[in-house]
Write a structure and sequence with these properties.
Layout lengths: L1 H16 L7 H16 L4 H25 L2 H15 L2 H16 L3 H8 L12 H48 L11 H25 L2 H11 L8 H12 L3 E2 L2 E3 L2 E3 L3 E2 L7 H34 L1
Antiparallel strand pairs: 1-4, 2-3
């Protein structure tokens, strides 16, 4: 039950406090990894493995070591703080709601600007439906990367697990590209993130299905997920779109070129409402995870003392 209580405390802290505006650990981590890349980049896989290890392992081992020597109460405080720092639940809402509000007000330029802070595609040429699709997709995918994946690894390995996962996910976003610069150097970052996300992504997809249109979510997961390049984003986004009864995917512009992507989901065209429904789906899923964690903890605790 202790893990569940710590998870609830961290989620509440995220809800009440949101992200740190200054000196956020993820920002500091990004700067550090940029420095590591400048010094260690080479067109070899082993260089990427060493760079990944240098970026990730010292802080993970430090947290583990501190918890080993700290009193129980201090170890629990460290756990809550680490999970709070690595969660992005409130931040997703703070990024997505302005997109929905601008779309509802008919302010397309403002909506494009707001969604540009969520996605990497060229937002200046998007119409209202494409803006809504981009924001909805971002909420669904980042619901796994910034929320459920972090909660999963925290439940499994505590604070070191949450930190390991979040750092690995961040490095995948920085180095995990199939470009001449990162094809080999970023290989480790991409593969490690794929491995760490395999189970959480499928639990996230199942969570979306259970909290939305269950049968449509499962059908879209089964028929659409394999069409996506990412083995983990496919199930998450297909099931999420199906759960929301919305059509996502399709053409999107990246670096001046429109790329045709496979379809996601079924049902209505994306709109401001689908963005808000995606946020509610994510919220309901988090509540469900916390309830399940609490019940499992109580069952285990009761079994130990039986």
């Amino acid at each position: 039950m202790n893990i569940a209580v710590l998870m609830i405390a961290a989620v509440l802290a995220d809800r009440l406090l949101g992200e740190l505006r200054r000196a956020h650990p993820l920002v500091a981590f990004g700067r550090m990894t940029n420095a590591i890349e400048r010094r260690m980049h080479a067109d070899r896989r082993m260089a990427g493995v060493l760079a990944w290890s240098l970026a990730v392992l010292p802080s993970v081992l430090l947290v583990w070591g501190l918890q080993c020597v700290a009193p129980r109460w201090a170890s629990q405080v460290i756990a809550v703080l680490v999970l709070y720092f690595t969660l992005g639940l409130r931040s997703l809402g703070e990024h997505a709601r302005p997109v929905a509000a601008a779309l509802q007000a008919g302010e397309l330029d403002a909506a494009r600007s707001a969604v540009g802070r969520m996605v990497s595609r060229d937002t200046a040429v998007l119409n209202a439906g494409q803006v809504a699709a981009a924001a909805t997709e971002s909420v669904l995918e980042n619901g796994n990367d910034a929320v459920f994946g972090t909660l999963f690894w925290f439940a499994l390995l505590g604070a070191p697990g949450a930190l390991l996962y979040r750092w690995a996910n961040t490095l995948d976003a920085m180095w995990g590209y199939r470009t001449p610069r990162y094809e080999r150097f970023g290989w480790a970052a991409a593969r490690i993130d794929d491995a760490l996300n395999y189970v959480p992504a499928r639990l996230t997809a199942l969570t979306y299905a259970l909290c939305g249109n269950f049968h449509r979510a499962l059908r879209c997961w089964r028929t659409q997920a394999s069409q996506w390049d990412s083995p983990n984003a496919g199930p998450v986004m297909a099931a999420g779109a199906g759960a929301l009864d919305v059509r996502l995917g399709g053409a999107a512009p990246y670096h001046g070129v429109w790329e045709e992507r496979p379809p996601l989901g079924e049902g209505d065209a994306p709109s401001a409402a689908s963005v808000l429904r995606a946020l509610r789906l994510l919220r309901d899923g988090v509540i469900a995870w916390l309830v399940v964690a609490l019940l499992l903890g109580m069952a285990i605790h009761g079994g130990v003392h039986a």
